[in-house]
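Project standup — Tuesday

K.O.: blocked on the structure for the chain from last sprint. Re-posting the sequence here as requested.
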Amino acid sequence: MTSVTNKAEVREATIYSMLFAISAGHFINDSIQSVVPAMFPIIKNSLHLSYSQMGWIAFVLNMTSSVMQPVFGAASDRRPQPYLLPAGMLLSMVGVIAFGLSPNFYFVLLAVLFIGLGSAVFHPEGSRVAFMAAGSRRGLAQSIYQMGGNGGQSLAPVFTAFIFVPLGQKGALLFAAVTAAGAVMLMKVSAWYKERLVIHGAKKKQQTSSATTKLPARIKGAMVLLIFFVFARSWYVAAITNFYQFYLIQDYGLSVPHSQLYLFAYLAAGVAGTFLGGPLADRFGRKNLLIFSMLGAAPLTLLLPYVPVTAVLPILLFIGFILLSSFSVAVVYAQELLSNRIGMASGLIVGLAFGMGAIGAVVFGFLADGFGVKFIMVAASVLPLLGVSALWLPGDKKIKEWQAR
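H.V.: unblocked you, prediction finished:
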Protein backbone atom coordinates (compact mmCIF):
# COMPACT_ATOMS: atom_id res chain seq x y z
CA MET A 1 0.00 0.00 0.00
CA THR A 2 2.82 2.40 0.88
CA SER A 3 4.54 1.71 -2.43
CA VAL A 4 1.39 2.51 -4.41
CA THR A 5 0.85 5.70 -2.43
CA ASN A 6 4.41 6.83 -3.01
CA LYS A 7 4.10 6.27 -6.77
CA ALA A 8 0.90 8.31 -6.84
CA GLU A 9 2.62 11.10 -4.94
CA VAL A 10 5.52 11.06 -7.42
CA ARG A 11 3.10 11.30 -10.33
CA GLU A 12 1.30 14.24 -8.75
CA ALA A 13 4.42 16.12 -7.61
CA THR A 14 5.19 19.39 -9.38
CA ILE A 15 8.91 19.49 -10.25
CA TYR A 16 9.63 23.20 -10.06
CA SER A 17 13.36 22.90 -10.84
CA MET A 18 12.56 21.51 -14.30
CA LEU A 19 9.70 23.97 -14.81
CA PHE A 20 11.94 26.96 -14.18
CA ALA A 21 14.76 25.46 -16.25
CA ILE A 22 12.54 24.90 -19.29
CA SER A 23 11.00 28.33 -18.72
CA ALA A 24 14.51 29.82 -18.85
CA GLY A 25 15.12 27.96 -22.11
CA HIS A 26 11.83 29.33 -23.43
CA PHE A 27 12.93 32.80 -22.36
CA ILE A 28 16.15 32.54 -24.37
CA ASN A 29 14.42 31.01 -27.41
CA ASP A 30 11.78 33.73 -27.60
CA SER A 31 14.32 36.46 -26.83
CA ILE A 32 16.10 35.41 -30.02
CA GLN A 33 12.83 35.55 -31.94
CA SER A 34 12.11 38.99 -30.52
CA VAL A 35 15.39 40.24 -32.00
CA VAL A 36 13.70 40.25 -35.42
CA PRO A 37 10.80 42.68 -34.77
CA ALA A 38 13.07 44.65 -32.43
CA MET A 39 15.36 45.27 -35.40
CA PHE A 40 12.55 46.53 -37.68
CA PRO A 41 13.06 50.27 -36.99
CA ILE A 42 16.79 49.79 -37.69
CA ILE A 43 16.75 47.67 -40.85
CA LYS A 44 13.83 49.63 -42.30
CA ASN A 45 16.26 52.51 -42.76
CA SER A 46 19.61 50.71 -43.16
CA LEU A 47 18.31 48.17 -45.74
CA HIS A 48 15.63 50.52 -47.18
CA LEU A 49 12.71 48.17 -46.52
CA SER A 50 9.01 48.83 -47.02
CA TYR A 51 6.27 47.90 -44.54
CA SER A 52 5.34 45.03 -46.87
CA GLN A 53 8.88 43.64 -46.78
CA MET A 54 8.91 43.79 -42.98
CA GLY A 55 5.60 41.95 -43.03
CA TRP A 56 7.22 39.24 -45.17
CA ILE A 57 10.13 38.95 -42.75
CA ALA A 58 7.68 38.43 -39.88
CA PHE A 59 5.76 35.99 -42.09
CA VAL A 60 8.81 33.79 -42.83
CA LEU A 61 9.88 33.80 -39.18
CA ASN A 62 6.50 32.96 -37.72
CA MET A 63 5.15 30.74 -40.48
CA THR A 64 8.25 28.51 -40.38
CA SER A 65 7.65 28.03 -36.68
CA SER A 66 3.92 27.57 -37.17
CA VAL A 67 4.03 24.98 -39.93
CA MET A 68 6.81 22.92 -38.42
CA GLN A 69 5.72 22.95 -34.75
CA PRO A 70 2.77 20.56 -35.24
CA VAL A 71 4.98 18.36 -37.45
CA PHE A 72 7.67 18.04 -34.78
CA GLY A 73 4.94 17.73 -32.13
CA ALA A 74 3.23 14.82 -33.91
CA ALA A 75 6.59 13.12 -34.44
CA SER A 76 7.51 13.49 -30.75
CA ASP A 77 4.14 12.01 -29.72
CA ARG A 78 5.21 8.83 -31.49
CA ARG A 79 8.90 8.97 -30.55
CA PRO A 80 10.05 11.68 -28.10
CA GLN A 81 13.42 13.25 -28.88
CA PRO A 82 14.74 14.95 -25.71
CA TYR A 83 17.88 16.34 -27.36
CA LEU A 84 15.87 18.33 -29.89
CA LEU A 85 15.77 21.02 -27.19
CA PRO A 86 19.47 22.02 -27.43
CA ALA A 87 19.45 21.28 -31.18
CA GLY A 88 16.72 23.86 -31.67
CA MET A 89 18.72 26.41 -29.70
CA LEU A 90 21.76 25.85 -31.92
CA LEU A 91 19.66 26.39 -35.06
CA SER A 92 18.53 29.71 -33.58
CA MET A 93 22.17 30.60 -32.93
CA VAL A 94 23.00 30.09 -36.62
CA GLY A 95 20.02 32.24 -37.56
CA VAL A 96 20.83 35.14 -35.25
CA ILE A 97 24.45 35.27 -36.45
CA ALA A 98 23.26 35.33 -40.07
CA PHE A 99 20.72 38.02 -39.22
CA GLY A 100 23.37 40.29 -37.74
CA LEU A 101 25.48 39.96 -40.89
CA SER A 102 22.70 40.05 -43.54
CA PRO A 103 23.42 42.64 -46.27
CA ASN A 104 19.96 42.71 -47.85
CA PHE A 105 16.32 41.68 -47.63
CA TYR A 106 16.84 38.16 -49.06
CA PHE A 107 19.64 37.26 -46.64
CA VAL A 108 17.42 38.46 -43.80
CA LEU A 109 14.70 36.06 -44.97
CA LEU A 110 17.19 33.16 -44.94
CA ALA A 111 18.40 34.10 -41.47
CA VAL A 112 14.92 34.25 -39.96
CA LEU A 113 14.14 30.90 -41.59
CA PHE A 114 16.77 29.33 -39.31
CA ILE A 115 15.45 31.19 -36.26
CA GLY A 116 11.90 30.04 -37.01
CA LEU A 117 13.01 26.45 -37.53
CA GLY A 118 14.90 26.48 -34.24
CA SER A 119 11.78 27.69 -32.48
CA ALA A 120 9.68 25.00 -34.16
CA VAL A 121 12.06 22.31 -32.89
CA PHE A 122 12.12 23.71 -29.35
CA HIS A 123 8.47 24.47 -28.55
CA PRO A 124 6.68 21.07 -28.72
CA GLU A 125 9.35 19.33 -26.65
CA GLY A 126 9.46 22.29 -24.25
CA SER A 127 5.70 22.05 -23.72
CA ARG A 128 6.05 18.30 -23.14
CA VAL A 129 8.67 18.88 -20.43
CA ALA A 130 6.34 21.38 -18.75
CA PHE A 131 3.50 18.85 -18.94
CA MET A 132 5.66 16.06 -17.50
CA ALA A 133 6.89 18.26 -14.64
CA ALA A 134 3.45 19.71 -13.86
CA GLY A 135 2.06 17.02 -11.59
CA SER A 136 -1.50 18.03 -10.75
CA ARG A 137 -0.92 21.78 -11.37
CA ARG A 138 -1.11 21.93 -15.14
CA GLY A 139 -2.35 25.49 -15.37
CA LEU A 140 0.41 26.82 -13.11
CA ALA A 141 3.06 24.71 -14.85
CA GLN A 142 2.12 25.92 -18.30
CA SER A 143 2.01 29.50 -17.00
CA ILE A 144 5.57 29.20 -15.69
CA TYR A 145 6.71 27.79 -19.02
CA GLN A 146 4.87 30.35 -21.16
CA MET A 147 5.93 33.20 -18.85
CA GLY A 148 9.49 32.52 -19.95
CA GLY A 149 8.53 32.79 -23.61
CA ASN A 150 6.43 35.90 -23.22
CA GLY A 151 9.14 37.41 -21.03
CA GLY A 152 11.63 36.91 -23.85
CA GLN A 153 9.26 38.48 -26.37
CA SER A 154 8.65 41.44 -24.07
CA LEU A 155 12.32 42.41 -24.29
CA ALA A 156 12.12 43.34 -27.97
CA PRO A 157 11.57 47.07 -27.25
CA VAL A 158 14.41 47.04 -24.71
CA PHE A 159 16.72 45.47 -27.30
CA THR A 160 15.78 48.19 -29.78
CA ALA A 161 16.25 51.10 -27.38
CA PHE A 162 19.46 50.00 -25.66
CA ILE A 163 21.25 47.67 -28.11
CA PHE A 164 20.15 48.14 -31.71
CA VAL A 165 19.79 51.94 -31.74
CA PRO A 166 23.42 52.45 -30.59
CA LEU A 167 24.98 49.34 -32.23
CA GLY A 168 22.85 48.85 -35.33
CA GLN A 169 22.20 45.54 -37.05
CA LYS A 170 25.45 43.91 -35.86
CA GLY A 171 24.15 44.17 -32.30
CA ALA A 172 22.30 40.92 -33.05
CA LEU A 173 25.65 39.10 -32.89
CA LEU A 174 25.68 39.58 -29.11
CA PHE A 175 22.89 37.02 -28.85
CA ALA A 176 25.02 34.18 -30.25
CA ALA A 177 26.63 33.76 -26.81
CA VAL A 178 23.19 33.73 -25.18
CA THR A 179 21.99 30.89 -27.41
CA ALA A 180 25.17 28.89 -26.77
CA ALA A 181 24.59 29.17 -23.01
CA GLY A 182 20.96 28.17 -23.53
CA ALA A 183 22.00 25.04 -25.43
CA VAL A 184 24.28 23.98 -22.56
CA MET A 185 21.51 24.48 -20.00
CA LEU A 186 19.00 22.54 -22.12
CA MET A 187 21.36 19.56 -22.28
CA LYS A 188 20.67 19.07 -18.55
CA VAL A 189 16.91 19.39 -19.09
CA SER A 190 17.14 16.83 -21.91
CA ALA A 191 18.99 14.41 -19.63
CA TRP A 192 16.16 14.64 -17.05
CA TYR A 193 13.59 14.26 -19.83
CA LYS A 194 15.33 11.11 -21.10
CA GLU A 195 15.40 9.58 -17.60
CA ARG A 196 11.71 10.36 -17.21
CA LEU A 197 10.93 8.53 -20.44
CA VAL A 198 12.79 5.45 -19.22
CA ILE A 199 10.93 5.46 -15.88
CA HIS A 200 7.54 5.77 -17.55
CA GLY A 201 8.36 3.72 -20.64
CA ALA A 202 5.37 1.39 -20.35
CA LYS A 203 2.96 4.27 -19.88
CA LYS A 204 4.48 6.02 -22.88
CA LYS A 205 3.91 2.99 -25.11
CA GLN A 206 0.27 2.98 -24.08
CA GLN A 207 -0.09 6.70 -24.87
CA THR A 208 1.69 6.27 -28.22
CA SER A 209 -0.71 3.49 -29.18
CA SER A 210 -3.80 5.49 -28.20
CA ALA A 211 -2.47 8.52 -30.08
CA THR A 212 -3.21 6.70 -33.34
CA THR A 213 -6.95 6.42 -32.62
CA LYS A 214 -9.40 8.58 -34.55
CA LEU A 215 -10.57 11.80 -32.88
CA PRO A 216 -14.31 12.09 -32.13
CA ALA A 217 -16.22 14.80 -34.03
CA ARG A 218 -16.93 16.74 -30.81
CA ILE A 219 -13.18 17.03 -30.10
CA LYS A 220 -12.51 18.20 -33.65
CA GLY A 221 -15.28 20.80 -33.37
CA ALA A 222 -13.89 22.15 -30.10
CA MET A 223 -10.40 22.37 -31.61
CA VAL A 224 -11.75 24.33 -34.59
CA LEU A 225 -13.37 26.85 -32.22
CA LEU A 226 -10.17 27.12 -30.19
CA ILE A 227 -8.11 27.67 -33.35
CA PHE A 228 -10.47 30.47 -34.43
CA PHE A 229 -10.06 32.03 -30.99
CA VAL A 230 -6.26 31.88 -31.29
CA PHE A 231 -6.51 33.37 -34.79
CA ALA A 232 -8.34 36.47 -33.55
CA ARG A 233 -6.00 36.99 -30.61
CA SER A 234 -2.86 36.43 -32.69
CA TRP A 235 -3.86 38.94 -35.38
CA TYR A 236 -4.41 41.64 -32.78
CA VAL A 237 -1.09 40.85 -31.09
CA ALA A 238 0.64 40.95 -34.50
CA ALA A 239 -0.76 44.42 -35.17
CA ILE A 240 0.49 45.75 -31.84
CA THR A 241 3.92 44.11 -31.72
CA ASN A 242 4.89 44.74 -35.35
CA PHE A 243 3.28 48.10 -36.19
CA TYR A 244 2.10 49.98 -33.09
CA GLN A 245 5.59 51.43 -32.60
CA PHE A 246 5.26 53.16 -35.99
CA TYR A 247 1.82 54.48 -35.00
CA LEU A 248 3.31 56.02 -31.86
CA ILE A 249 6.14 57.58 -33.88
CA GLN A 250 3.95 58.96 -36.69
CA ASP A 251 0.75 59.98 -34.90
CA TYR A 252 2.07 60.93 -31.46
CA GLY A 253 5.53 62.14 -32.49
CA LEU A 254 7.44 59.84 -30.14
CA SER A 255 11.08 58.93 -30.72
CA VAL A 256 12.10 55.34 -31.55
CA PRO A 257 13.45 54.59 -28.01
CA HIS A 258 10.38 56.23 -26.39
CA SER A 259 7.95 54.22 -28.53
CA GLN A 260 9.78 51.04 -27.52
CA LEU A 261 9.14 51.72 -23.84
CA TYR A 262 5.39 51.84 -24.49
CA LEU A 263 5.59 48.56 -26.35
CA PHE A 264 7.66 47.04 -23.54
CA ALA A 265 4.99 48.04 -21.02
CA TYR A 266 2.34 46.23 -23.07
CA LEU A 267 4.47 43.09 -23.38
CA ALA A 268 5.55 43.13 -19.72
CA ALA A 269 1.90 43.34 -18.67
CA GLY A 270 1.31 40.36 -20.95
CA VAL A 271 3.98 38.40 -19.07
CA ALA A 272 2.15 39.07 -15.80
CA GLY A 273 -1.14 38.07 -17.42
CA THR A 274 0.39 34.87 -18.78
CA PHE A 275 1.73 33.92 -15.35
CA LEU A 276 -1.51 34.58 -13.47
CA GLY A 277 -3.79 33.23 -16.20
CA GLY A 278 -2.97 29.58 -15.48
CA PRO A 279 -3.65 29.64 -11.72
CA LEU A 280 -6.81 31.72 -12.29
CA ALA A 281 -8.00 29.18 -14.85
CA ASP A 282 -7.27 26.34 -12.40
CA ARG A 283 -9.56 28.14 -9.94
CA PHE A 284 -12.32 29.61 -12.14
CA GLY A 285 -12.25 27.32 -15.19
CA ARG A 286 -10.32 27.41 -18.44
CA LYS A 287 -13.30 28.27 -20.63
CA ASN A 288 -14.26 31.21 -18.38
CA LEU A 289 -10.73 32.59 -18.52
CA LEU A 290 -10.63 32.29 -22.32
CA ILE A 291 -13.89 34.25 -22.64
CA PHE A 292 -12.75 36.95 -20.22
CA SER A 293 -9.36 37.42 -21.88
CA MET A 294 -10.86 38.53 -25.19
CA LEU A 295 -14.21 40.09 -24.35
CA GLY A 296 -12.73 41.81 -21.29
CA ALA A 297 -10.03 43.42 -23.42
CA ALA A 298 -12.33 44.38 -26.32
CA PRO A 299 -13.64 47.74 -24.93
CA LEU A 300 -10.05 48.87 -24.33
CA THR A 301 -8.78 47.79 -27.76
CA LEU A 302 -11.63 49.72 -29.38
CA LEU A 303 -10.62 52.86 -27.45
CA LEU A 304 -6.85 52.64 -27.96
CA PRO A 305 -6.57 54.27 -31.44
CA TYR A 306 -8.45 57.39 -30.30
CA VAL A 307 -7.09 58.23 -26.85
CA PRO A 308 -4.57 61.03 -26.08
CA VAL A 309 -0.98 60.02 -25.45
CA THR A 310 -1.41 60.38 -21.67
CA ALA A 311 -3.98 57.55 -21.69
CA VAL A 312 -2.03 55.20 -23.97
CA LEU A 313 0.18 53.64 -21.30
CA PRO A 314 -2.50 52.58 -18.79
CA ILE A 315 -4.72 51.23 -21.56
CA LEU A 316 -1.82 49.26 -23.07
CA LEU A 317 -1.05 47.79 -19.64
CA PHE A 318 -4.60 46.56 -19.14
CA ILE A 319 -4.88 45.21 -22.70
CA GLY A 320 -1.61 43.31 -22.38
CA PHE A 321 -2.52 41.80 -19.02
CA ILE A 322 -6.09 40.78 -19.92
CA LEU A 323 -5.53 39.65 -23.50
CA LEU A 324 -2.45 37.50 -22.88
CA SER A 325 -3.85 35.91 -19.72
CA SER A 326 -5.26 33.23 -22.04
CA PHE A 327 -1.95 32.34 -23.71
CA SER A 328 -1.00 29.43 -21.46
CA VAL A 329 -4.64 28.55 -20.80
CA ALA A 330 -5.33 27.88 -24.48
CA VAL A 331 -2.38 25.45 -24.55
CA VAL A 332 -3.59 23.54 -21.48
CA TYR A 333 -7.14 23.49 -22.88
CA ALA A 334 -5.84 21.94 -26.12
CA GLN A 335 -3.72 19.42 -24.19
CA GLU A 336 -6.80 18.29 -22.29
CA LEU A 337 -8.82 17.98 -25.48
CA LEU A 338 -6.00 15.94 -27.07
CA SER A 339 -4.81 14.27 -23.88
CA ASN A 340 -2.85 11.53 -25.70
CA ARG A 341 -1.29 13.92 -28.25
CA ILE A 342 0.46 16.47 -26.07
CA GLY A 343 3.13 17.36 -28.62
CA MET A 344 0.63 17.91 -31.41
CA ALA A 345 -1.72 19.91 -29.16
CA SER A 346 1.10 22.19 -28.01
CA GLY A 347 2.48 22.55 -31.53
CA LEU A 348 -0.91 23.42 -32.96
CA ILE A 349 -1.79 26.12 -30.43
CA VAL A 350 1.61 27.69 -29.82
CA GLY A 351 2.66 27.24 -33.45
CA LEU A 352 -0.69 28.50 -34.63
CA ALA A 353 -0.27 31.64 -32.57
CA PHE A 354 2.95 32.38 -34.48
CA GLY A 355 1.49 31.32 -37.82
CA MET A 356 -1.65 33.37 -37.56
CA GLY A 357 0.45 36.29 -36.41
CA ALA A 358 2.64 35.78 -39.48
CA ILE A 359 -0.28 36.00 -41.87
CA GLY A 360 -1.60 38.99 -39.95
CA ALA A 361 1.76 40.75 -40.21
CA VAL A 362 1.77 40.37 -44.00
CA VAL A 363 -1.82 41.57 -44.37
CA PHE A 364 -1.29 44.51 -42.04
CA GLY A 365 1.96 45.36 -43.83
CA PHE A 366 0.19 45.67 -47.19
CA LEU A 367 -2.64 47.66 -45.59
CA ALA A 368 -0.16 50.00 -43.89
CA ASP A 369 1.59 50.68 -47.21
CA GLY A 370 -1.76 51.39 -48.88
CA PHE A 371 -3.81 53.13 -46.19
CA GLY A 372 -1.42 54.10 -43.40
CA VAL A 373 -0.59 52.71 -39.98
CA LYS A 374 -3.57 54.32 -38.25
CA PHE A 375 -5.95 52.43 -40.54
CA ILE A 376 -4.61 49.05 -39.42
CA MET A 377 -4.76 50.08 -35.75
CA VAL A 378 -8.44 50.91 -36.11
CA ALA A 379 -9.13 47.73 -38.12
CA ALA A 380 -7.30 45.51 -35.62
CA SER A 381 -9.14 47.03 -32.64
CA VAL A 382 -12.30 45.01 -33.40
CA LEU A 383 -10.56 41.62 -33.47
CA PRO A 384 -10.96 40.81 -29.74
CA LEU A 385 -14.74 40.89 -30.26
CA LEU A 386 -14.30 37.61 -32.13
CA GLY A 387 -13.51 36.07 -28.75
CA VAL A 388 -17.27 35.55 -28.46
CA SER A 389 -16.52 32.23 -30.20
CA ALA A 390 -15.25 30.89 -26.85
CA LEU A 391 -18.84 30.88 -25.56
CA TRP A 392 -19.45 27.74 -27.62
CA LEU A 393 -16.42 25.84 -26.31
CA PRO A 394 -17.18 22.85 -24.04
CA GLY A 395 -16.70 23.55 -20.34
CA ASP A 396 -14.03 21.94 -18.20
CA LYS A 397 -16.43 19.39 -16.70
CA LYS A 398 -17.64 18.36 -20.15
CA ILE A 399 -14.07 17.70 -21.30
CA LYS A 400 -13.44 15.53 -18.23
CA GLU A 401 -16.60 13.57 -19.04
CA TRP A 402 -15.34 13.01 -22.59
CA GLN A 403 -11.98 11.80 -21.28
CA ALA A 404 -13.65 9.38 -18.88
CA ARG A 405 -15.54 7.60 -21.69
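K.O.: great, moving the ticket to review. The two ends are 28 Å apart (CA to CA). The chain is about 80% helix and 0% strand.
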